[in-house]
Each structure stands twice: as C-alpha cells, then as structure tokens.
Design brief:
Elements: E1 6-8, H1 9-16, H2 20-28, E2 36-37, E3 44-47, H3 51-62, H4 67-75, H5 78-111, H6 113-119, E4 123-127, E5 130-137, H7 144-160, E6 170-173, E7 185-191, E8 203-206, E9 209-217, H8 226-239, E10 249-252, E11 264-272
Antiparallel strand pairs: 1-3, 2-3, 4-9, 5-7, 5-8, 6-7, 6-10, 9-11, 10-11
Helix pairs in contact: 4-5, 5-6, 6-8
Length: 274
C-alpha cells in the first residue's frame, strides 16, 4: 500500500485553499492538528489524506459555522454530520427570517402609518360568544414566548379532558408588553359552554364582537417585529373612524412547532365597537 505523503504546511495550505494562519488556528482549536512537527525547526507537516477534512472545514466556514460546531461535524459519522449541517442551516434561516422582519419593522417605524399600511392587509370578521379557560400574568417580553407555550399547554390539557377545543386559542394583551410595560397578558382557550361547571381552572365568557385583524407569519410574531402588525391594525381602525371595544389579541390557528418562518402563524386582532 502506498504510504500517505507528508506535506509541508505551505503545500497543504495551498491544496486545501487555507492560509497557514488558519491552519495554526485550527491546530490550537484541536480541529486539524498536524501529523508531524519537526522537533528541531517546529515545522508542521500534514498527511495528504487530511485534505478532505481541511476542505470540509473551508466549506463549513463558508456557511459562517462557528468552530465549535465545525468540530462536532468533523468528529461525527457521515449521517450525523449531515444532520448537524442541516440543523445549523435551519437555525441560520430562522435567524435571517427574524432579522428580515425586524428590518421591516424598523422601516415601518421610521415611515410611520405609510409603512404599516403598505405591508399588512386588514380584514374584518364576526366572532361569536365563547366560554374560555384563562390564565393571566404580568410578564416581560423575554419571558413571554416560553410562558405562552407553557400556559397554552396547561389549558389545552384541561380542554382536551373535557370535550376539546371549541375555537382557536388566543392571547389577550390587557397592557403593553415592552421594555416599559408588563401586561398583564391573558391566555384564553375556547371550550364547550355546555360543560362550564366541569372545568377545574379559571374561566370566563368572551363576548361576541366584530374585530379587525391582520395575518402574520411565524417570523413576524417575534418581538418587536409584531408591533408593526398592531400598529397597522390600529391605524386602520382610526382611518375607518372605528373604535376599539376591548384589548388587542393574537389568535393562534396553526400548530406552532410545525411552522416554517414564512408560514402564517396567527392573527393580530382588535375588537371593534358597534
């Protein structure tokens, strides 16, 4: 069997399309240590068979993958390495989608009403009276997503044990949730009104009402991007000379975990008087 040739760091760097500085960094990080270091000169040498690993590092860094994650890919068997790359890129796409929506929100904020109305389509609908299970809390923007998920899970379990959902869950914002405000926020899960006496948690009647709403994607739900959707609905309400009759809310009609960033995720809605 032909012996695997040793290449100097310069030759290896040229063939791998890496700089010698990068190779020294990857050595310090434990990603690509040399196969031999001359004890007298300190020169580094790499076996030719290591070129595939070096070229893989180049490509992974081309995705802006952090070195720690590059190391995990290099040490994993092929199927797991492929899964790690796919998971990393899914995360990148989610971050890019969120950043895209944040940029759109900032644009709308700077343009005022003009930017909001250009981006969101406002519609109207009638909502019937509903019996809803509720859970309410004062909360920060950072805590809000996890709390919504947990509270919906708790109320959904009760609803499923007593006839299931009788409409889409929604989240009512009785006060602003921002850097300066903490709500309160109320989770509402519609249930069978005929079984009102059976529920072991707080419940109330949500009155019938008309509402103005706009549909937003999963990426647009992130804070502060979602504020643009609220601004758009309230701008429409004012422009139509209508009056809000109750606190704004988000109506969740889709299974959150299965949604891509661009998929419709919820409606931002404002109940209307009259």
């Amino acid at each position: 069997m032909e012996e695997d040739a040793l290449l100097s760091i310069g030759a290896f760097a040229r063939r791998a399309r890496l700089s010698q500085k990068a190779l020294r960094l990857y050595d310090r990080q434990g990603l690509l240590p040399p196969d031999h270091v001359d004890p007298g000169t300190g020169y580094r040498y790499y076996r030719e068979s290591r070129l595939d690993a070096a070229r893989l590092i180049v490509r992974l860094r081309g995705l802006d993958m952090p070195l720690a994650e590059v190391g995990a890919v290099l040490s994993a068997p092929a199927p797991e390495a492929a899964r790690l790359v796919a998971a990393y890129w899914d995360g990148v796409e989610r971050r890019l989608a969120a950043q895209r929506e944040l940029a759109a929100h900032l644009r709308n904020h700077l343009l005022g009403d003009e930017g909001n109305l250009d981006m969101y389509e406002i519609q109207q609908r009638e909502v019937p009276e509903q019996l809803v299970l509720t859970e309410q809390r004062h909360i920060t923007p950072e805590e809000l997503p996890d709390w919504i998920h947990a509270a919906l899970g708790r109320l959904a379990a009760v609803a499923e044990a007593h006839g299931g959902f009788f409409g889409h869950p929604f989240v009512v914002y009785h006060g602003e949730v921002t850097e300066d405000g903490d709500g309160p926020v109320e989770i509402c899960v519609p249930v069978d009104p005929a079984r009102a006496a059976e529920f072991p948690v707080a419940s109330r009647i949500e009155p019938a009402h008309a509402e103005a709403y706009t549909r937003v994607t999963k990426a647009q739900v992130a804070y502060p991007q979602i504020l643009s959707a609220y601004d758009a609905v309230y701008t429409w309400v004012e422009g139509e000379a209508r009056t809000a009759s109750a606190a704004p809310r988000e109506v969740y009609f889709a299974e959150w975990s299965g949604l891509a960033p661009a998929d419709p995720a919820c409606d931002v809605a404002v109940p209307l008087a009259g």
